[in-house]
Each structure stands twice: as C-alpha cells, then as structure tokens.
Amino acid sequence: MLFQPQSWKIKKLPASIAKTFKVSISGFLDIHRYAVIELLKFMNIPFTDTLQKNNTHLIHPNQLKESIRNGSKFKMALEWKLFVVKLDWLYFVMQNGHTIGCEDGFAYRER
User: Fold this and answer.
1) pLDDT band for position 46 (50/70/90)?
2) Calpha distance 106→87 (Å, rounded)
3) What is the dihedral of CA 13, 51, 26, 6, to 10 degrees?
4) Is 89 within 8 Å of 106 (Cβ atoms)?
5) Are the C-beta atoms of residues 23 and 48 closer than 8 Å to each other?
6) Where are the domains of the chain?
7) What is the DSSP string of 66-102?
8) 19-63+73-82+89-106 in CATH: which number?
9) What is the pLDDT of residues 56-87, one digit of tens each?
10) How many CB atoms lie within 10 A of CB 39?
C-alpha cells in the first residue's frame, strides 16, 4: 500500500491533534522506512527516531516478525504502555482521521 496509488485523499491531522502524538517506528528498512517517515511528516505527526518514554505510538509492519518483537524498541514500548500498532493504523488515520480508541483494532496483543 505504501507505493500504490490510492483513490482517497490523505487526511492531514489538525495541528491541535497532531501535536499530541509522538511516533517512532520499528522493523522498516530502507525505502519503506523513509516512506513511513514521509507519511508521518505529511500528516503533521511528530516522528522520533529514538523511542522515548514520552512517545505515544510505536508503528511496526503489519507482519510482525520475531526479530521485531524481541527488539529493544518493541519491549520498551510495551513496558512504557505506549500504543504499539500495525502500519494499518496509520492508513486508517490517513483515510478517516484520528478518533479516541482507534488504535484498539490495530494494537499488538500478547499471546
């Protein structure tokens, strides 16, 4: 979906909402990584390369690999109770905007 034309417009988040986010990503390489970062920037969502306690979200690829789940960013995000969500969450927000609780359908659940 990252490199496919879409029939819908990307919704930029209003500054008042976007400033409440601080997003980091894990598990994306090369061009996919930069594409996600550029989408976040386009939507006005603050991005940090380094995960910190004051981050709000950690986005990972839709197919969660063991190596990502065992990574330090992923483990710390869970420990800090951040939203750990699939990339599909970002697509949802791009199409529909953000609503409270919309992360629930895309959140990582421990088995």
Assistant:
1) very high
2) 8
3) 10
4) yes
5) yes
6) 19-63+73-82+89-106
7) HHHHTSHHHHHHHHTT-EEEEHHHHHHHHHH---TTG
8) 3.40.50.10190
9) 999 999 988 898 889 999 999 999 999 999 99
10) 19
